[in-house]
Amino acid sequence: MSHETAMSLGEQRRAIEALAALATAFPILPSDTLTVGRVIAPSGVALGIHVNLHTTFADFEAWREALRIAAADVHHEEMDTIQTLRAYAVFNGVDVELTAFTPRSP
Predict the structure, then answer these.
(1) What does the pLDDT average to over 54-79?
(2) In which band, very low, low, confident or very high, does the pLDDT at 42 lie, cut at 50, 70 and 90?
(3) Residue 2 — φ and ψ, nearest 5°?
């Protein structure tokens, strides 16, 4: 079993700066939970930004449009009690994982 060491704040600087640039470029986007860390993107594991929304799919759509993610690139998954939308983008050279969680419709 391998154990990766935590990244230093300096190593995360590029993603932190990209997150600050997102806030400047799109100040009215809903922001439920934003984190910087390892992202498992389609291109592999990379330093990136996680945007997790626990509100509505409309909030996800606002982010999707701002990040210019094609609707065809959104992955939808239904589980017992929730459904998720997930998509990936690159902003200022940093991977962004966008995920929305909502209760599953009866």
Answers:
(1) 95
(2) confident
(3) -100, 150
Say how far apart CA 49 and CA 97 lie, in whole Å. 6
Q: Which tokens belong to 54?
A: 């626990």
Residue 105: HSE in the Cβ half-sphere, 13 Å Cα cutoff: 3
Whether residue 50 contacts residue 39, with contact meaning beta carbons closer than 8 Å, is answered with yes
**CB neighbourhood size of 7 (10 A):** 14
pLDDT score of 6 = 83
Q: Where are the domains of the chain?
A: 13-103
Q: How many residues does the structure list for the chain?
A: 106
In the chain, where does DSSP find H-type helix? 13-25, 57-66
